[in-house]
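Protocol step 4 of 6: structure prediction from sequence.
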Amino acid sequence: LSFPMDASIAATGTVNEGNTSTSLGLKGIPALAEEIQIARDLYILEYTGGKLHIPTISTSGAVALIAEAKKKGLDVTCSVAIHNLYHTDEVLHDFDTHFKVMPPLRTSKDREALRKGLRTGVIDMVTSDHIPIDIEEKRVEFDRAAYGSIGLESSFGTLNSIFGPDKTVDFLTSGHERFGLDSPVIKEGEPVSLSLFNPEGDYVITRESLESTSKNSMYIGRKAKGRVYGSVTGPQVFLKK
């Protein structure tokens, strides 16, 4: 696994380098910082063989590099964080630290490339990139705030609002084989493992609706479609309050 960021190029940047960073006076992280690291890793993979997973890509250039590597037959997979499929850096105009994540939110062009890459199989899986942060580390100046947003509880509703339920389930469960995890099966004599969800109905995510102790969610106030309301794990049933 290799995180796609060249720290020497990203330097002290905090958001995507572009029109938004310039207008807000925030130091930017260029797409180059991600893409040059990916290009390096793919060259090494091509030379040495083996397997490579690249977590949470965020740029259109990254999608193109990985697509080309797969055409060559290289054993490479990658993931994308759900918030990079949903938001762009235009949400930063209020300096809300809930939107400070790594890699940063990018442009609408990048977002569309990521969505297309996921639909076409260039991107193999999605991740919630769920990072709980203490309130003290978010309620500070943007430059000093910690990176990260929680997103586990909002994953299904957010993805479902973009891709629909069938694709959403596929994207959320497609990483098992790559990481050597057993996929749950429904079979007599086997422990059951089920998610309970309703794919229909819109709702707005609120601070009060979050079960997590940490409330650093960039989805608060956003509309989602459908929701998970419980799970069945072996003999136990868990229902959301």
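Step 5 (inspection) to follow. The chain has a mean pLDDT of 95.
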